[in-house]
Amino acid sequence: MSAAPLNNDGHLGVMLTELRLPTMKRLAAELCEQSDREGWPARRLLEQLLQQETAEREVRRFDRHRAESGLDPDKRLSTFDFAAVPTISKAQVLGLVESRQWLDRGGNILAFGAPGGGKSHLLSGIGHALVDAGKRVLFVRCTDLVQRLQAARRDLRLPQELQKLDRFELLILDDLSYVRRDQAETSVLFELIAERYERKSIAITANTPFSQWGEVFVDAAMTLAAIDRLVHHATILEMNVESYRRRAAEANAATLRSTRRALAARPSPDQGPPPPPRSTGA
Ligand code: ADP
Ligand code: MG
């Protein structure tokens, strides 16, 4: 005999909804029945129900953190080819995700290199690994975040907006170099950097070296102050390799060429010679 749905016995289901215990609500009828049938001590039933709720709550929390992170689900460390970037050490990157004390003191990661070298993929992979470890991470395009902060400043709620970002242990700002110098824009970026300094971590990808960051911030003093704060506790990843996309495209093209050559040299066994060209009659 199957357990009666909780809704039919009134109160219990309603109370579990009220207390936001969806897993207990889903399993209560079945586990109560099993408990009656097998003569469980009351404590065992209670433990079973609470254990299930706690376990599923943990899973829901991870799912929520993953969803809010803005991380591309495909860009993980497991799909990152470290051999393609000899300038960085896989051990160093794995060290960052395994021993995470740097997050506690607001350590930063700065990834530099030409477009296509894998900066966004690598930082996204680090982000996923940190979410796996229970951390909260936000991956955003730097220009998008700057616009959001700028709008907040216009509405006189910049401090609240910065405060909201505090819930993320790591903020990944993708493509800092695309932010353009404009007084209002770049000073909000500076405020963000200053606000998080030695408290909460920032990771940045940039196509341009520090020497060109003067293009991003308002003036030389602000540029230096921003760089100073970012590098104080930072891991710098130099990723100046040729574009992975271009290399992959070239490798594909080469494979295609050699496949074509091989096919052209070897007549297909189950097809006769190619048919003669048809006259169009035109
Ligand atoms: P960047 O941010 O430096 O411009 P991306 O991380 O966007 O480069 O990389 C460009 C594309 O190439 C992406 O699709 C990325 O997944 C892929 N890619 C780059 N480097 C690697 C790598 N080392 N291993 C696997 N895929 C890579
Ligand atoms: Mg990128």
Please give a structural write-up.
By secondary structure, the protein is of the alpha/beta class. The protein is built from eleven helices and five strands, in the order αααααβαβααβαβαβα. It is extended and about 70 Å long. It binds adenosine-5'-diphosphate and magnesium ion (MG). Adenosine-5'-diphosphate binds at residues 75, 79-81, 84-85, 113, 115-121, 205, 244-245.
Could you spell the SSE succession in H and E letters?
HHHHHEHEHHEHEHEH
Radius of gyration: 28 Å
Average residue-wise pLDDT? 88
Going by helix content, strand content and strand pairing, the class is alpha/beta
Number of strands: 5
Number of helices: 11
What order do the strands of the largest sheet run in, or round the barrel if closed?
2-3-4-1-5
Low-confidence stretches: none
- Range of helix content: 40-55%
Q: Assign an overall shape.
A: extended
Beta-sheet strand percentage? 5-15%
| Ends distance | 80 Å
Say which molecules are bound, naming each kind only once. Answer: adenosine-5'-diphosphate, magnesium ion
The description of the largest β-sheet is: 5 strands, parallel
Short description:
By secondary structure, this protein is α/β, with parallel strands linked by helices. It is built from eleven helices and five strands, in the order αααααβαβααβαβαβα. Helix 3 (42-69) packs antiparallel against helix 6 (119-132), helix 7 packs antiparallel against helix 8 and helix 9 packs parallel to helix 10.
